[in-house]
Design a protein that fits this description.
17% of the residues lie in helices and 27% in strands. By secondary structure, the chain is α/β, with parallel strands linked by helices. The chain has one domain: Glutaconate Coenzyme A-transferase (3-Layer(aba) Sandwich), CATH 3.40.1080.10. The strands form two sheets. Strands 1, 2, 3, 4, 8, 9, 10 and 11 form an eight-stranded mixed sheet that branches. Strands 5-7-6 form a three-stranded antiparallel sheet. The model has no long low-confidence stretch (mean pLDDT 96).
Length: 232
């Protein structure tokens, strides 16, 4: 990796500098658009005490769920956690701290963090356990709660195509949380299905500009389906 060229050739280089007790913001929704190889590298490294900010925690044997097997995750900031039995077990046993956050609020926490906005008001969660202990202010007669933004030591995201300068395009629903996550990491690592030369991506189609990206690695993806449902 030299100059504007952000491509690294090993997962060890991609996640270099990740240490215990850091915060990782991860793109993906369910198993769609997750950086599979980067997650596997975190498991290989054995890094522990991690705070993971992601819509969910994968499933028991895939995605972020594999980090629960060796209890590498200390805290999850998530919206949906219903597909992971090990997650439920560790939560009920007091081994895993969980901060449940509405999906729109979670996305805005990432976006605001990446934009340098420390906090924002939202009506979502007012009058529920989500709003307990948070500042309330009225705008036009409607109460809103104050939510703090989120940034991480690392952000890990999955792109469809990236160029060597780190400009990224996401494909269809695999976009999900990835663009917001990419902006909110001190070090942002992109795992891409394809890496092209600068100038090959249509500037009008780029979702994440390379200014937000520190490292790019070419990945291979299983793209497992979380739950296959077939009509009779």
């Amino acid at each position: 990796m030299a100059g504007f060229d952000k491509v690294v050739t090993s997962y060890a280089d991609a996640m270099a500098g990740l240490n215990d007790n850091m915060t990782i913001i991860a793109g993906g929704f369910g198993l769609c658009g997750i950086p599979e190889g980067l997650i596997a590298q975190i498991k290989t490294m054995g890094t522990s005490g991690l705070t993971i900010v992601s819509n969910n925690c994968g499933v028991d044997d895939f995605g972020l769920g594999i980090l629960l097997e060796d209890k590498q995750v200390k805290k999850m900031v998530s919206s949906y956690v219903g597909e992971n039995a090990l997650f439920e077990q560790q939560l009920l046993n007091g081994e895993l701290e969980v901060e449940l956050t509405p999906q729109g609020t979670l996305a805005e926490k990432m976006r605001a963090g990446g934009a340098g906005i420390p906090a924002f008001y939202t009506a979502t969660g007012y009058g529920t356990p989500v709003g307990e202990g948070k500042e309330v202010k009225e705008f036009n007669g409607r109460p809103y709660i104050l939510e703090e933004s989120i940034t991480g030591d690392f952000a890990i995201v999955k792109a469809w195509k990236a160029d060597r300068y780190g400009n990224c395009i996401y494909r269809h629903t695999a976009q999900n949380f990835n663009p917001m996550a990419a902006t909110a990491g001190k070090i942002t690592v992109v795992e891409a299905e394809e890496i092209v030369e600068p100038g090959e991506l249509d500037p009008a189609h780029i979702h994440t500009p390379g200014i937000y990206v520190d490292r790019v690695i070419l990945g291979t993806f299983e793209k497992r389906i979380e739950r296959r449902v077939l009509a009779k």
